[in-house]
Amino acid sequence: MRTPIGLISSAASERVLADRRREQVPTPFGSVEILIGKIGGHDAAVLLRYGEKMTLPSHKINYRANIWALRELGVTRIISQNAIGSVNPAIRPGDIVISDDFLDKTRTRPNSLFDDSEAWVRVDMTNPFCPQTRAALIRAATARSNRVIERGVFVCTEGPRFETPAEIRALQMEGGDIVGTPLVPEVVFAREAEMCFASIAPVINFGAGMAPAVIHTGPGSMNDMYYTDGLHTLIEDIIIDTAKLLVDEARTCGCGRALRGGFHGTRPEWLKHCSLDEGA
Ligand SMILES: [Zn+2]
Questions:
Q1: DSSP 61
Q2: How far does residue 272's CA lie from ligand 1's centre (Å)?
Q3: CB distance 167 to 66 below 8 Å
């Protein structure tokens, strides 16, 4: 069996994930429900990060268990679907951003998979997102849309509230382009787990103070932007195409060797099959 692709999203329609079944995956950090099925005809594991009934806000998600559950299922590449707001006036609702960097503005989340171990790791973040997975997302997205922005700084805030206008102005000055709440620490833990990770982020609103207040439902709302106007379907099509592109590509990025050199302390017993097993 080929290595399954992993998708982390808030929802996954039958279009994007076919032949689905649920699987409860035990991890050292707790048990996680994963949907197993096919994306574009290929094996896939999908994690609904807010829970199936959207009961978990970003600051309450068990990020360590989620990433480790995907790893236990053999996933090496994760696509993260992030509907987000824009901080940059040049990036408008309807655009699709494939981020190449991030700013971490979270406050209460675990810092590392190894926080409860007698070990720590200093992973390199020169390329915070997997370059190979990003390239596949960009190829798939530009084939279907002329509104793809191939670089961007994703600001991850704590939430669950939206930002204030002053916060948005501060994030603009710090170089942020888009803003959302669940990216960090997913991207960090994927790197610590030696998995590839990249984000596809449809823009569905402007940050506070850049436009009239956000409307959640009804005409002109964020939900209309995403679901009624076809953006959500487009994103799912791009994810399907990306899975097809990646399935036959050998990993040429360095994500699978992230622990080499930066690992200190005693290797926890749950850390199996990683680059620390390779010779010097
Ligand atoms: Zn990679």
A1: -
A2: 19
A3: no
Where in the chain are the domains?
5-268
Provide the whole-model pTM: 0.95
Are residues 218 and 212 in contact, defined by beta-carbon separation less than 8 angstroms? no
The alpha carbon of 191 and the centre of ligand 1 are apart by a number of angstroms equal to 9
Q: What is the pLDDT of residues 89-139, one digit of tens each?
A: 999 999 999 999 999 999 999 999 999 999 999 999 999 999 999 999 999
Q: How far is the CA of 130 from the centre of ligand 1 (A)?
A: 4
Average pLDDT in the 47-71 region? 94
pLDDT tens-digit readout, 173-190: 999 999 999 999 999 999
For residue 137, the model assigns a pLDDT of: 98
Side-chain-side CA neighbours of 68 within 13 Å: the count stands at: 18
- Output the pLDDT for position 278: 85
Sign of the C-alpha dihedral computed for residues 49, 235, 102 and 193 taken in this order? positive
CATH of 5-268, one of 3.40.50.2000, 3.40.50.1580, 3.40.1010.10, 3.10.450.330: 3.40.50.1580
The per-residue pLDDT for 232 is 92
Tell me, in angstroms, the distance from the centre of ligand 1 to residue 190's CA. 10
Q: Is the peptide bond before 185 cis (omega within 30 degrees of 0)?
A: yes
What's the token pair of residue 91? 């990036």
Q: Which residues contact 125 (CB under 8 A, 6 or more apart)?
A: 191
Region 35-42: mean pLDDT is 95
Q: Give the distance (Å) from ligand 1 centre to CA of residue 126.
A: 13
| E strand segments, 27-76 | 32-39, 42-48
